[in-house]
Amino acid sequence: MAKMWAGRTSGVTDSIADDFNSSLRFDHRMYRQDITGSMAHAAMLGEQGIISRQEADRLIGGLEGILRDLDSGALDFDPSCEDIHMFVEQVLTERLGDVGKKLHTARSRNDQVALDIRLYLRQEIDEISALTRELLKTVVDKAEEYKDAIMPGYTHLQRAQPVTFGHYLMAYAMMLQRDLGRLADCRRRMNLSPIGCCALAGTTYPTDREMEAAALGFDGVCLNSMDGVSDRDFALELLSALSVEMMHLSRFSEEIILWCSWEFGFVELSDAFTTGSSIMPQKKNADMAELVRGKTGRVYGELMALLTTMKGLPLAYNKDMQEDKEGLFDGCDTVKMCLRVFTGMVATLRARRENMLAAAQKGFINATDLADYLVGKGLPFRSAYKISGELVAWCIAHGQVLETLPLEVYREHCELFDEGLYEAIDLRRCVALRTSQGGTSVSSVEAQIASMRQFLNE
User: Fold this and answer.
1) Does residue 457 have a pLDDT over 80?
2) Residues 201-214 pLDDT 10s
3) Is 342 in a helix, a strand, or coil?
4) Residue 148, CA atoms < 13 Å, CB-side half-sphere
5) What is d(CA 366, CA 156) in angstroms, rounded to the nearest whole number?
6) Does the N-terminal peptide bond of residue 316 adopt cis geometry, omega within 30 degrees of 0?
7) pTM to 2 decimals?
8) Could you give the CA distance from residue 154 to residue 251 in angstroms, rounded to a whole number?
């Protein structure tokens, strides 16, 4: 069957070329956006007198009928159609006759697909943002529950200083908040209408691009027609934002996987978000966290693929740009799936306070507080640091910890030590005194939680 673009050529292509060229198998998911955009376009054509109002009304009515039939399943996609745009126009022409052929006046598939993608991704951003907010709320709730649970904080994956589990969780809350900001920024820059740019040079028809843009909820129009049809920065920016968000989920996953191990034993995941082994009956695997960690690379790959596709393209539209959709669709689908499972996993996670505290009591994570104690006695910090380090080395050599080391040993290293040192290095006091803004004390964590709840309520 000859294509709608037949004329310069016969419009008859080899079946292999047909299949290679077709995008309907994946761009059909944009049918609502395509039809919505076409209805706004028909209304503009009628308003401007480019077609009659009666023709515009018939086009809009025909498009509404196609949308209803696709939604209900009464109409199936025709795999012989090249893309979603041609499918909708073909069905419309079959139903309305020559009137249907007027829909494509003053536009091109170049600006039509650019419009559809923006409309589609705008909705995806709203869904991903809502899911991210739900995860953020879940993390904040969990931080509230464990705001006083003492655990070791790490640098270089070595025990460093005592923190609370609530403080630890709020670090991830901050990452998710930034993810929401990136999504909002991306949506704002994306929300300009390319329709009316046509193939690349605009049109001779007296169109009203602002009317179409307003009808479709855009903040304005793309001001250069060549840029309007060839720009995919918004797609790259979204995949970049999604990659950063997946990186955050992957880091969180890595922590959960470690914390679930027998070696850490800090948290236990609900059976609903773990799996077992087919051969080892004792196993309880954090497979959901591992899958999120694994799928992060998938989203990264989609960003790199589109960057590579776009890097050598001359203006304006090129068929290469058809390759934008599958990666975009899969990236959005993957992130939404990961956010849903992650929220459930975190909501049902249980911290093992006793194991966290026991780990914090080992590893000399109060050594800095010991040095600070000497600073309070008038010793320069660097000298206090050296004495504290020597005492840690002594403890390691003699199988002791700072809390149990006799006072006389302390005084052998520095005469400034007295009985007050034991209170100074008590883990609970070490945490409680870290009241600096953003610190790990309960009061500081409560302030972080309050700030985040205010953000969520705005």
Assistant:
1) yes
2) 999 999 999 999 99
3) helix
4) 4
5) 17
6) yes
7) 0.93
8) 14
| β-pair partners for 150 | 164
One-letter identity of residue 261: S
- Cα(276)–Cα(282) distance, integer angstroms: 8
Give the three-state DSSP class for 21.
Answer: helix
Distance CA 283, CA 91 (A): 55
Q: Which residue has the tokens 């985040």?
A: 452
DSSP 63-127: HHHHHHHHHHTSS---TTSSSHHHHHHHHHHHHHGGGGGGTTTT--HHHHHHHHHHHHHHHHHHH
Question: How many helices (DSSP H) and strands (DSSP E) are in the chain?
Answer: 19, 6
Strands 150-155 and 158-164: antiparallel
Dihedral sign from CA coordinates of 95, 98, 99, 105: positive
DSSP-based three-state secondary structure for 260: helix
Cα(84)–Cα(377) distance, rounded to whole angstroms? Answer: 76
Residue 334: both structure tokens together: 């993957």
Is the distance from CB of 446 to CB of 147 less than 8 angstroms? yes
Give the phi and the psi of residue 151 in degrees, each rounded to 5.
-150, 165
CA dist., res. 164 & res. 148, Å (int): 6
SS3 content of the chain, % helix, strand, coil (to 5): 65, 5, 30
Rounded Cα distance, 78 and 371, in Å: 75
Active site residues: 156, 277
Q: What are phi and psi of 248, to 5 degrees?
A: -65, -45
Residue 1 has pLDDT above 80, yes or no: no
